[in-house]
Write a structure and sequence with these properties.
The protein has a 7-stranded mixed sheet with strand order 3-2-1-4-5-9-8, with helices on both faces. Strands 6-7 form a two-stranded antiparallel ribbon. The chain has 223 residues and is an alpha/beta fold. The protein contains 9 helices and 9 strands. Helix content is 32%, strand content 26%. It has a single domain, classed as Vaccinia Virus protein VP39 (Rossmann fold). The structure holds S-adenosylmethionine.
């Protein structure tokens, strides 16, 4: 399932197979000006408060996603945060694994299941093609700059098995740029009108369903 071997990171069944990818972005990105690194760090101000605030957030979505997949499906939870949806997927009889860059969230999410500490932008170097039945991206692509999203979506397509499912939720309103919040500064990339749907389709997905509002939720299948 994984492509390379690097330092083991203590992930149960996955630990001997997955690379520890912090050094990839250390080498390729400046910590001083990378929007993802700065935004992800902001969650460390109070990770417990974040977990509590979003504990009941949109729970019907992961439940619905789980129902589309055969029992025991492999689900990649991108930017899993404290692990709320990993728990839901496990309880539905699936085999989720999270990937998350914030170390406090990694520790919290590991109480719910397997989690790799890594950067979504390196996803294609972490997992082998056709490893997953589903990819779940609940508000996890939000801090990537727009030019990074297309390659990541294509990488996610490659990670899916034939007819594999994708869910992705991103902001639709507001400006793309920096937002100073009470716990820190974060970059948000917003997707007006049908631009995110178009990006997902361009990456090689069939769009099954789209919900428009302050957030755009795209349900898609690999073609
Ligand atoms: C808005 S939170 C959503 C968390 C969780 N999916 C949820 O629904 O509560 C965004 C999450 O994505 C993570 N994240 C953002 N960019 C990432 C990246 N490039 N690699 C790994 N994790 C990332 C953040 O650390 C944070 O946990």
């Amino acid at each position: 399932m994984t492509k390379r071997r690097h330092a083991a990171v203590g992930l149960g069944n996955w630990s001997s197979k997955v690379p520890f990818s912090w050094h990839y972005w250390h080498m390729s990105k400046s910590l001083d000006n990378d929007p993802v690194i700065i935004s992800v760090a902001a969650y460390s101000a109070n990770p417990i408060a974040y977990a509590e605030k979003y504990a009941a957030h949109l729970l019907d979505r992961p439940t619905r996603f789980a129902s589309f997949l055969s029992p025991g499906s492999q689900i990649l939870d991108l930017g899993c945060g404290p692990g709320r949806d990993i728990k839901i997927f496990s309880e539905a009889g699936h085999k989720p694994i999270g990937i998350e860059l914030n170390p406090a969230f990694v520790d919290m999410a590991r109480r719910q299941g397997d989690v790799i500490q890594g950067d979504i932008r390196n996803i294609s170097s972490i997992f082998s093609p056709t490893s997953f039945d589903g990819v779940w991206a609940q508000a996890s692509l939000v801090h990537l700059v727009k030019s990074e999203i297309g390659p990541v979506l294509q990488g996610l397509r490659d990670l899916l098995k034939p007819n594999g499912r994708l869910y992705a939720c991103v902001p639709a309103t507001g400006e793309t740029g920096w937002l100073d919040e009470s716990d820190g500064r974060r970059w948000y990339t917003t997707w007006p009108e049908d631009s995110f749907e178009t990006a997902v389709r361009t990456a090689g997905f069939h769009i099954n369903d789209v919900t428009h509002g302050p957030y755009i939720e795209v349900w898609a299948t690999k073609v």
